[in-house]
């Protein structure tokens, strides 16, 4: 089972490395959106500090969504998805591998970039640390939940818009608890409660999402 | 070993075929023919359990394939209409990752030999997007060289291939049949397979007839 998981992750990472433009595009989107806010709102430190968690989290959420439509679409187009569905292993396991690979490619760069970008908002060291941790816990949930939407809209024309409509409402709890953790730190309350809830969402997102995703993929392949 | 009874396929409102039945034993090949749009690919996808049949059932060694699930999939090698080749990867990487996903043991030397056999020597390390259509098909067919699974389902295996490659693929299928394997394939080209018994099945106009040669 682990061998298969490793094979799927290795294959997807190798594909991503050959197509670095995608990773760079999502990361640049994140950098640009976050950097535009301080320029647009003005250099008022108090205001910036209050806005920071929300801006960073919304930007991370949208950057993750950018790469979602391609999660299964490429495999669907060239027939690889059929081969994955016919592998002598549960399809959900393969989906889990693809979700992990998606997070490594689309989520992890955001986690690394966030503390650097947070400096622009005059966030304290504590707040930056909590921001990074909250993204580290939260972004896997975004990949997992997004996979359900990507599978459901597979092969649909104009699927990108539909995907956003399906997935954004499910992202709201992640956004609230993720940004809330940083907010709580800034205002002096502890972030533990928010982070625990975020962790619960991430576990649910990553380990339960593969089943509905696999079911949706089988329907798309019929 | 593989038995289908009274299969029916409906696409949208139209019934493509009904009452399709056949039986295939080790060493036999089913040669599926029919006009364009007669449901050949749909029938193949049913045999792989990718598409459920509207009615009728498919048995593998006496058990419905839906019940067997993974056990059936581990016996099946499907080569679809599309090549299932990743354009960014080289033929060698494609072959190795396909083997890893199918959980087949394939080392790099065996993979290189397989690619040389299908005429891709010297192209092993070239990304597949630089290959011609026929070469991509050859890269996809290289999977068959070391394929040990007993049931092969091939959708138009000869498409885009030159006569020498067609001969080669027919030889691979022949060797597979000789080793007791089963094959189901669709094609519009009449190609003699060197070994094994061939059954014919004609799909078209809502009825199916089975002929034996």
From TrEMBL, chain A:
One GO MF term attached to the UniProt entry: heme transmembrane transporter activity
Listed Pfam families: CcmB
GO biological process: cytochrome c biosynthetic process; cytochrome complex assembly
Domain of life: Bacteria
Membrane-spanning parts: 21-42, 54-72, 93-121, 127-154, 161-182, 194-221
Keywords: Cell inner membrane, Cell membrane, Cytochrome c-type biogenesis, Membrane, Transmembrane, Transmembrane helix, Transport
GO cellular component: plasma membrane
Function: Required for the export of heme to the periplasm for the biogenesis of c-type cytochromes.
The family this protein is said to belong to: Belongs to the CcmB/CycW/HelB family.
Name the UniProt record assigns to this protein: Heme exporter protein B
Organism: Accumulibacter regalis
Gene name of the record: ccmB
From TrEMBL, chain B:
EC number: 3.6.3.41
Keyword tags: ATP-binding, Cell membrane, Cytochrome c-type biogenesis, Hydrolase, Membrane, Nucleotide-binding, Translocase, Transport
Entry's Gene Ontology BP terms: cytochrome complex assembly
Pfam family, one: ABC_tran
Single GO term (MF): transmembrane transporter activity
Highest taxon of the lineage: Bacteria
InterPro entries, sorted: AAA+_ATPase, ABC_transporter-like_ATP-bd, ABC_transporter-like_CS, ABC_transptr_haem_export_CcmA, P-loop_NTPase
ABC transporter domain residues: 2-213
Protein name, UniProt field: Cytochrome c biogenesis ATP-binding export protein CcmA
Annotated organism of origin: Accumulibacter regalis
